[in-house]
Structure formats: structure tokens, C-alpha cells
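Worked example

This section walks through a single chain of length 301. The input is the sequence exactly as stored; nothing has been trimmed or padded.
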Amino acid sequence: MMNSNGNVSVSGPNEKIIQNKHNDYDSKEEKIMPLVTSKEMLLKAQKGRYAVGAFNAENMEMVKAIIQAAEELKAPVMIQTTPSTVKYGTVETYAAIVAAEAAKASVPVCLHLDHGSSFELAMQAMHAGYTSVMIDGSKLDFEDNIRETRRVADVAAALDIPCEAEADTNTDPQEAKEFVERTGVTSLAVAIGTAHGFYVGTPVLDKERLSEIHEVVDIPLVLHGASGLSDEDVSDCVKRGICKVNFATELRAAYSRAVKETFAENENTIDPKAYGKKAIQAVKELVEARMKVCGCDGKAE
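Given that input, the structure is written out below as C-alpha cells.
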């Protein structure tokens, strides 16, 4: 978590502290880039009119694939875990894995809690070393969502950790503006017709509403549910003000497909590293393609 000097630290089993002394990733002096917060990278994306790719990881192999793709393209990147993922592996485990891989990287890597389901989980994530959190109260009524979001945003601000939230499941521009002003969040997920998981049929996005939200909300906007969206839809949303794009389901599909192909080629495979390597390559290729669509390639140079 952030210490009093503004450094990001993650405590491992041996209490080793990994610090990021320069959150501005334009620093030419640093050759490695431990975990950074999402604040700087999203503000740069907003100014540069591109989006940072945010990719959900389920295991070490997916973390490696995402960071390898970012290194290859010289792109800033956010790695995310959901409540179900950390229930499976704990926030401490994922924080340690991502911090270890980020410490070897030359590009900025942020670890983000995606769809944080409670105040308590957001606190656990920040304590474990997450450098960005989301609190998702979109299923609550508007006032309750504001109260719950403000609780998390206030603590996150005190720790200099960015906080993302979602106003509701059908974002109204004026409600979005009020929500941001009353909660103090640093980024806002917008609901414009996207959904989680793969789409059945062709999704119809309310892009005009996105433009209207962009007109009245001055913090970075986030697009959830991008797995399965066309490159054209993602690119158009970025042009209309999206600064962060979430990808999850299609990464899981690419990983699982690669594992299945390994067993199809040799059903007697018993070494997890054999299918792990194939899965890393498959996820890496997908992440690279999505980064290019977001326009974040080359933005970490």
C-alpha cells in the first residue's frame, strides 16, 4: 500500500518491500517499474485520447502473458482480479504474483480490484498491495450507492490510491455528474449497453449517451464488458472519451482453448508447464491485439 512518502509497497512472506519512487512513468532513469497506481496512466490516456487496456488474470500464467504483451508493445497496463478470483486465490496471493512480475518489467503495471463487492474487500485489497480499486454499488439505489462508494473513495484518497465506481446499470449523464461530485471517485464505469461474458447476438451500444456523459464528467471513463465487442466499437468508444477498457472473458477462453489444444495433440501430457506455455502465448497474442485497438501501444516509451 501507499506509505507516507507516496511509495507503493507490497509485503511478501519475508517482509520484502517493493517500492515505486516515481509514479510518473515518463521517468527515463528507472529501468524497472514496480507497481504503480492507475491515476497517472489514466490521466495520460485521457489527455492523449487513447485507452489503457485492463485485463483480468486468473493465475500466474495469465499475469505473465499480460505483462509480456505490455513489454512487447511498450504499453502501460492494468491487471485486474474480481471478487470470485480472489475468493479462489486471496488478494495476498495475487498481489504477490503481480508485484513480483511487475518488478521485472520496464513498463508501468497497475494491480486493480475489479467490481469490488464490499467496503471490506476493498480495504483488504489495498492492505494487500493493490494500487487501484473499484467499489461496485451499481445494484444499490442511487443514494445507498453514493454512501457506500464515498466510504471506499475517502479511504482510498487518504492512501493516494485511485477508486473507480459505477453509478448505476443504465448510466444517466446528469446522475453520473452528481455521482462523481458527491463521491470523489477518480474514474467512472459507464453502462451503455455492454454486458459481462460473451454476447448473444450483436451488442448495440448507446454511444451517443457515452458522448453526453463525457461532456459533463471530467474524470476518466471506463468501459466494462468489452470481451466480444468489435474492434470498431472499442475504438469508437475510446474516441468518445473512454480511457480504460476491461477485458476478461475472452482471455479465459483463449487460455482454456490453448490448454484443450495441448491435450488434443497429446492426451498423455502431464506437465502443467507444457500447456501453461501454450496458454501464455495465446493470451499474450490476444492482449497485444486488444492493446493496439485501445491505442495504448507505445505509450510507455
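What to look for: The chain is about 45% helix and 15% strand.
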